[in-house]
Each structure stands twice: as structure tokens, then as C-alpha cells.
Amino acid sequence: LKEKHKILHRLLQDSSSPVDL
Amino acid sequence: PECADQRVLAKHLYDSYLKSFPTTKAKARAILTGRTTDKSPVVIYDMNSLIRGEDQIKCNYLTPYGEQNEEVAIRIFHRCQSRSVESVREITEFAKNIPGFVNLDLNDQVTLLKYGVHEIIFTMLASLMNKDGVLIADGQGFMTREFLKSLRKPFGEFMESKFEFAVRFNALELDDSDLAIFIAVIILCGDRPGLVNVKPIEDIQDTLLQALELQLKMNHPDSSQLFAKLLQKMTDLRQVVTEHVQYLQLIRKTEVDMDLHPLLQEIYKDLY
After folding, report:
1. In chain A, pLDDT over 90 holds for what percent of residues?
2. Higher confidence at residue B179 or residue B272?
3. CA–CA gap between residue B252 and residue B261 (Å, rounded)
């Protein structure tokens, strides 16, 4: 699925990292 | 102790929401009701006020394709697209801050966003709307519902279902701290088509639902059945998205030259 959603996948992988709770 | 955990989660989601989404409901309501010292929004109600507004409103996405000579209805449609793309970015950042989200199967993360983003876009759009119009360009402008309705077919009907939803949704009088948890609940829906591993998604959503129920009890003690009413809105939202996708299919059929942003193409492909 991620192959068909390259931009969405990139948004998930890139930019700011998640905040720990 | 369980309640304390739920309050920590609620606070965390609210903080992430404030970081991810620049135009809050609090800011939008202050502008819409005139309770702000900021400049009043430029009201766009016809073609002349649109042209004046375009000079006055400073915003990158006003002319995303640099085509000022495009037909008005198509120009407005392109701007809606640009704003949607920006919203998808913001929602993705917010999703990554929901505890447990980034540990899910990556394909499932993609699926949850693919199906969730438009429900969230229309939830948050309601914050910018009243029955008469919608704030645009981070509150710099206000475009009337009548003006949008007057655009040529099929664009004139494009926003109507969103206004109808917004009026009903805004009657619940949620604030940004409620919306932060509600949006997280929408993202973590275990019934999205094609999910690989549903159980961890449902586990996170259960925790979020408990936090949402407590939040609504504490923040709206006099509003009976608010939690149940809000969950009912999730069904309405799916209907709004389904209609939106049908409109887009119609527009793509009738407007042969209409281009759709690649990110939105990915999301709409095989959606419903």
C-alpha cells in the first residue's frame, strides 16, 4: 500500500519526530 | 489513577493539536464574533469583492498555480485543494504524536491517514464556518456561503454539504481541547478497509475514547449525552466525505482540464 501512496508515506517518514509521552 | 492517565493523554493531545494546527477554533470564533483586536476579515461576497480581497489578503496559497487569469470557480477550487494538501501535512504531524501511532504497521499508518484525513478536514473546517460563510487565509478573509453557492455548476454546490454539517456540528459547542481528542479518535478507526493489524489500532482507540468521554464530562458537565452525540457525528462525517468524493468524480468528468494535486490523487484513488 505504501508504494501506491508515496507522498503520504514520505510525510509519515520525514519531518519532525514524534513526542514521547 | 486511570483518570489521571486520561487527563495526561488529553493534555498531550491538546498540546500537539496547538503545535500542528495554526488556526484554532478559539481564534476563528474570536474573529467570527468580532471579539478580537486583529483586523476584521475582508468579506468576499461577489466578484468585485473577490478581486479587492485578492489584493488585500496576503497568503501563499491564494495563487498556488500562479494563474490569476483562471476562471474564478476553478481558481477557488484550486485554493481549496492547496489548503487541503496543507491540512494533510498538519494532520500527519498530529497523528505521529498520538501515543502508539508510529509503532503501528507502516501500511496501516498510511491506511488510517488515507481514510481519516478528509473526515478531519471537514471537522476542522466547521470551526471556520458559521451559517453565513467561512474564514479563509488564516482568518484574513471571510467568503460568504451565498457567493460560493453562486459559482457555476458543478462548483456552486461543492461547499453546501460542508456548511450543513458545520451548522449541526457547531451546535455541540466543542472547544479545541475536545476536538484534539476527537480527531485522534477519528484517525485510530479499526474499521478502515485493508488494515493489516486491527487489534493494536482498536486498543489505542479505546484509550482515546475513554479520555474523550472524561474530557467531555469535565469540560461540558451540563451537556447530557454529549459523548454519544459526538460519536454519532462520525457517521455523518463519512457521509460528507462520500458526497465530497462523488463531487470530485463529477468535476473530473465535466472539467477535462482540471488537475488534482498528486497527494490528493493518492488519497482519493480507490477510497470509496
Report:
1. 38
2. B179
3. 13
Q: Do the Cβ atoms of B267 and B88 come closer than 8 Å? A: yes
* B9 → chain A, closest CA residue: A21
Q: Please name the residue of chain A whose CA is at the shortest distance from the CA of residue B8.
A: A21
- Which residues of chain B have a CB within 8 Å of the CB of A1? 107, 110-111, 194
Q: Are B79 and B62 in contact (CB under 8 A)?
A: yes
Q: Are residues A12 and B110, on separate chains, in Cβ contact within 8 Å?
A: yes
User: Is the minimum CB–CB distance between B86 and chain A shorter than 8 Å?
Assistant: no
Please answer whether residues B102 and A18 qualify as being in contact, where contact means their C-beta atoms are separated by less than 8 angstroms: yes
The complex scores an ipTM of 0.85
Of chain A residues 1-20, which have a CB less than 8 A from chain B?
Answer: 1-2, 4-9, 11-12, 15-19
DSSP string, B173-236: ---HHHHHHHHHHHHT-TTSTT-S-HHHHHHHHHHHHHHHHHHHHHH-TT-TTHHHHHHHHHHH
C-alpha cell at position B22: 495554526
